[in-house]
Write a structure and sequence with these properties.
With 145 residues, the chain is of the alpha+beta class. The chain has one domain (3-65, 72-135): Nuclear Transport Factor 2, Chain: A (Roll), CATH 3.10.450.50. The protein has three helices and six strands, in the order ααββαββββ. A six-stranded mixed sheet has the order 2-1-6-5-4-3.
């Protein structure tokens, strides 16, 4: 494996970690810096959002749409089994599992399917697809129908 590929893999791992840490802390401007300007984010059963202005609405809508009650906000996204396929020096694909912890415990879980690309010398999300596989009956975030 060449050095540029090792750097690409570590940069992509850092990208995913920053997405989780910044999102969980409500630092949405920092989350949006992780996306290419024309990126697409898809959450199953919702229309895709294109560009950082539309993607922002996913985070702000979730933050205001959850009934937190009087309890403090506790939110942790954890990823695992991150597989990265480096295509070339500027493009890659990845997939990983995620689970989310809140004060109810295990809240929901699923998969991220990502396309990455280099923008201005840094790895960014070009496309992120979020697929939720399951949720706790007490989930704060699961969509109730």
């Amino acid at each position: 494996m060449e050095m540029w590929e090792l750097v690409a893999r570590e940069s992509i791992r850092d990208l995913v970690a920053r997405y989780n840490a910044n999102g969980d802390s409500g630092r949405f401007d920092q989350v949006l810096e992780l996306f290419a300007p024309d990126a697409v984010m898809e959450i199953e059963a919702e229309a895709p959002r294109t560009g950082t202005d539309e993607i922002r609405t996913i985070f702000t809508g979730t933050a205001t749409g959850v009934d937190w009650g009087d309890r403090p906000v506790y939110l942790r996204h954890v990823t695992g089994t991150h597989q990265i396929d480096v295509i070339d020096e500027t493009t890659a694909r990845g997939r990983c599992y995620f689970f989310v912890l809140t004060d109810v415990g295990l809240d929901h879980w699923g998969r991220y399917l990502d396309d990455y690309r280099v923008v201005d010398g840094r790895w960014r999300f070009a496309r992120r697809r979020v697929s939720t596989d399951g949720a706790s009956p007490d989930s704060l975030f699961a969509r109730r129908t």
